[in-house]
Amino acid sequence: MNLTQLNQRLDQIQSEIIRFQSGRAMQLLNEVGEIRGRVAAFIGAPIGIVPLETLERAAILHAVAVCRNKHAAAEALGIGKTSLYRKLEQYAREAAL
Fold first, then answer.
1. Would you say the pTM of this structure is higher than 0.90?
2. What is the dihedral of CA 31, 88, 97, 57, to 10 degrees?
3. 37-63: average pLDDT
4. Structural domain boundaries of the chain?
5. 65 — alpha (psi -120 to 50), left (phi > 0) or beta?
């Protein structure tokens, strides 16, 4: 797996956790830990240190998933609506690659 694939898998896992909130959550959280360890090894960072871009992406996708609309998600994140939409467009472009 390359870094982009690992980040995409983390996004999928996070979405599943949000959707299901079940016993599968612990298994998925363990997988997240394993993938984060691989990412850290790949980029040469210590385990437990995640690039800010990865954290930002996870926070934005989580906020969009749990808030009632994108305006509320932007407000919850403390960012402007334009910034939120720009990031979401960027993520969509990256996913299309």
1. no
2. -30
3. 76
4. 1-50, 51-97
5. alpha
